[in-house]
Amino acid sequence: MNREQDDLHPLSLAMRERVLLELERIERERNVTVLYACESGSRAWGFASTDSDYDVRFVYVEKPDWFVQVDTPRDVIERPLDDELDISGWELRKTLGLLRKSNPTLLEWLDSPLVYRSETPATARLQALAEAFYSPPAARSHYLSMARKNFRGYLQGDTVRFKKYFYVLRPLLAVRWIDLGLGRPPMTFADLLSTVTDPLLLDEVATLLALKRNAGEAAYGPRRPALHRFISAELEREAPKLPRTQEHTHLLDHYLRETVKHYA
Asked: For residue 60, what are the β-bridge partners?
């Protein structure tokens, strides 16, 4: 789902123009075509702080000669430009290999509410393939592991960075989304939060969101017991039986060949 920019997903016109210029520069310098580019991170999730940076992620396609080299060429482009803007992308074959594994990071990119570039036919087919290869067990395992790791690493003190709560809450809400059989978890926190109905918990989250959005990325606050109780309960909740996805790699091969040929 691609929303129009709103207060929860801030993106200035100047930054959008800067990103587009950088993507064009990458295309010229690397002789590639950017198929899709989006915002990742807190701006896309919907809880950016006043000083949040921009995390641009993209998928690109190489020319045919790139695929016929003895040595395996690098399949990632990284451009950490400054403290405000970071740009990196994955080559299409690498992207499809990750899509076959139902890589949640890639699926989130494809669901970003902030899209900079999109080659419509190619992106539409990529979206359809992402849906076809989506694996609930793989996604659940990824998000639960992320939540556990972040909980152990960031939420054990008497004071906690506001942003770190969301690094645990967001993956846990994604797990809830999966367990409810709602399909691919959306990227945005507000959509994931729709699985919560407890008004007291929702008030607690709303308070924390307001603090996070109006403070800097490094801002701390006291431990929030209500959120800790919810997190602990969710981490211990038993997993339901989830459907598994059948792999049809030939669909990815066909898409790769057709896309490389089209942008040769």
From this structure: 34, 91
